[in-house]
Amino acid sequence: MSVDESQDREAGPAPARDVGAGDWEGLAEQARALAQGRVSSTALVRRSLERIAATQDTVNAFKRVRAEAAMAEAAEADRRLAAGERLPLLGVPVAVKDDTDVAGEPTAFGCAGEFPLKQRDAEVVRRLRAAGAIIVGKTNACELGQWPFTEGPAFGDTRNPWNLAHTPGGSSGGSAAAVAAGLVPAALGTDGAGSVRIPAAWSHLVGIKPQRGRISTWPEAESFQGITGIGPLARTVQDAALLLDVASGNHAGDLHRPPAIAARQAAGRDPGRLRIALSWKPATTFTAKPLHPDVRAAVTGVARTLARLGHFVEEAEPDYGLVGLAFVPRATAGVGEWAARVPDRSLLDRRTRGAVRMGRVLGGPVLRRARLVEKRQQRRIGALFGPYDVLLTPTTATPPPRIGTLAKLSGWRTDQAMIAACPYAWPWNVLGWPGVSVPAGFSADGLPLGAQLLGPAHGEPRLIALAAQLQDDLRWHERRPAGHPAPLDGVPR
Q: Biased composition, Basic and acidic residues: where in the chain (predicted)?
């Protein structure tokens, strides 16, 4: 294994306490307790709602809370459980991001203004309900998912449960904060440039960006010109895999329909001895992207753990080429498509309006060209997966910024700061391939950091198996933010 020894320094302690694995009731643990009759859905959902209410003035994870509806659905789940019905998540509270349609709720996606109530569930919500899950609410996201922070005039500042002065990341920051604070055992986010993986890294969670189309984006045939997908956030690989399995599947109108996988089975499988490329060099963006020494130290530690577990790890760099030229037209076109649905566009952030204008400039032939070169980019970057099985990179280049650091910058300066902090995730959105962010430790200031496991098309099972092996060794799920609420009686301890 080849790493830079000079950067291998110990990161400082996190503001957390160590707990036994059973002290945290995860998704699978809650489902098991419900099926065994040791706790009721009514009790779990009530506690979730109480925790949401108690933290809304501080963490501010939720945009919409379905208190009355969720309690009614929990009572119905208890009746079904008592009658002997069993489903993967029957009676378990979960959350979805506020870019995902839930019948009877508006979908504002971080925007100000009055939005109409949706008449139908998104396909992924339909699947969650079919598995028995109770949707307790919709989590905050920055405006149209554009930035790696979750702040805005429409809902305020969503804060990191590990340190309330810092962001949990974005754009799925509300979902990440809700899981990290123990408000729900798992949640869904969406990832168009790292928006699941970045908040996973900055909130000490596992975040999976699946293969494009693995989870349906319907009523969108594809989202943001194919760069955005839906993925789970959870404290453990097993819970993230369970939520991925439950949420996966397609609607007849989806443009992308990959073959099915068994994520939960993968989480219990030995990954075998793998060849892992450790990469520090992000894709070219013609902007400065210095790597924070605490991040380098943390990811180096993960690489050494992988080597100790028997994998072959060496430094190697993918050939990214100018993949960014294909990302920007797709991203800005997606912003423009979504902005066209906003009831009052005068309320949009000035940076959003600038992105919409850019999308018009880069639309038409430029956008079509950006879509056409995807296969070539997959071949060029995918050449790495001849000699190697997995690519290991930092998830982000920095620890989570303080609240307000990026929120009031100009459009250009926001882009520069965003690229500097988060240069590693977005190329995989262009490719449509899977990636998993796993906790990598903490900065000297006690802020969570992440490492990213990336693979080729349909490679989730290998990435999930490897992440589970890392979890067994590093035991990251045994740490939680200070002041985390206690378990509920009847749920495993």
A: 1-11
